[in-house]
Amino acid sequence: MNARINELLLRNLQEVFGEGDARRRREAIEALYTEDCQIYVPPGVLVGHDALDQFAGDLRATHPHFVYTPHSKPQALHNGGRLAWGSGPRGESPDYTGWDVIIARDGKIAALYVFLDTSPT
């Protein structure tokens, strides 16, 4: 299970939040998240694939040139895991950093908690 949680954390960062192509992002959401997933982000709580897809797409549109970079190795514990990351223009210091914390169920992300260290500029 630890290897799967690590994979979920890394793929979510790149294939959901870092993906600019809407079709590929949606395919990743369906592969990585349970249908009833809950996403806890500073603006509120999102439920389900459609809400996550809309949020990730809207976020990506605000800074399409940003990349998401892991700042540590993923850590897994039982059915949960966490990953520190940064986001900003490729090759530059991140504009903001944060932590993703997930709870997995049946090999997929059932809940994602996004903690931001600093506000995007």
UniProtKB/TrEMBL annotation:
- Taxonomy, superkingdom: Bacteria
Which residues belong to any copy of the SnoaL-like domain? 16-111
Record-linked InterPro entries: NTF2-like_dom_sf, SnoaL-like
Q: SUPFAM superfamilies per the record? A: NTF2-like
What name has this protein been given in UniProt?
SnoaL-like domain-containing protein
The taxonomic lineage of its organism, from the top, reads: Bacteria, Pseudomonadati, Pseudomonadota, Gammaproteobacteria, Pseudomonadales
